Amino acid sequence: MNFRIVHVSIQRSHIHLIVEAANRKQLWKGMQAFSISAARQINASLGRPHGSVFADRYHAVPLRSPRQVRNCIAYVLNNWRHHGTDRDALKKPWKIDPYSSASAFDGWKQRQAAGVYYRAPAGYLPPVVWIAKTWLLSEGWRRYGLVDHFEVPGRGDE
Fold first, then answer.
1. C-alpha to C-alpha distance for 141 and 88, rounded to whole angstroms
2. Could you tell me which of 72, 61, 59, 70 has the C-alpha nearest to residue 14?
3. How far apart are CA 18 and CA 130, in angstroms?
4. Which of 37, 62, 99, 116 has the highest Cβ tally under 10 A?
5. How far apart are CA 155 and CA 158, in angstroms?
6. Domain range summary for the chain, segments of one domain joined by +
7. What is the pLDDT of residues 100-152, one digit of tens each?
């Protein structure tokens, strides 16, 4: 496969993705396929046959260094803290964002330190993502430290 979604975070008005793509064409094709599939599923869950779901196109930023990848992972998986949605009453028992791929992420500082594994409530299905294949996303970013699940992106602690 030439396109993989490795990390995802679903916010109220937008989605953050970290993807691997073989080239620009594969990125474009993969994003197009993702957008179509997501729109169909969202429309079906809302009981409407069709309709615009994504108003804007995607904004791609190539990640080139281990530090940049580490900061991006922390930003995407902790983006709910940046927006303050981690303080919503429904999410209080969660240490990680339930609307992200955080439960599958093996680079949490807390998980490594104490062997913490996140148990989801019965019936919860986390977003499905691919395991990273590139060195930067699988190993390289770890040179700059594991991610603390209390980091707040955009506040200087990434």
1. 30
2. 59
3. 10
4. 99
5. 7
6. 3-144
7. 999 889 899 887 666 556 666 677 788 889 999 999 999 999 999 999 988 88
d(CA 8, CA 15): 7
Phi (first) and psi of residue 139, to 5 degrees: -135, -45
pLDDT tens string 10-44? 888 889 999 999 999 999 999 999 988 888 888 88
Amino acid at 30: G
What confidence tens digit (pLDDT) does each residue in 78-105 have?
998 887 777 775 666 677 888 899 988 9
From CA 106, how far away is CA 33, in angstroms rounded? 27
> How far apart (Å, rounded) are the C-alpha atoms in residues 44 and 31?
20
Token pair belonging to 71: 């900061």
Residue 82, both tokens? 């940046």
Q: How far apart are CA 27 and CA 65, in angstroms?
A: 19
User: Do 32 and 154 touch, CB atoms closer than 8 A?
Assistant: no
- Asked if pLDDT for residue 157 goes beyond 50, the answer is no
What is the rounded CA–CA span in Å between residue 54 and residue 15? 10
Q: Which 8-state DSSP code applies to residue 141?
A: G
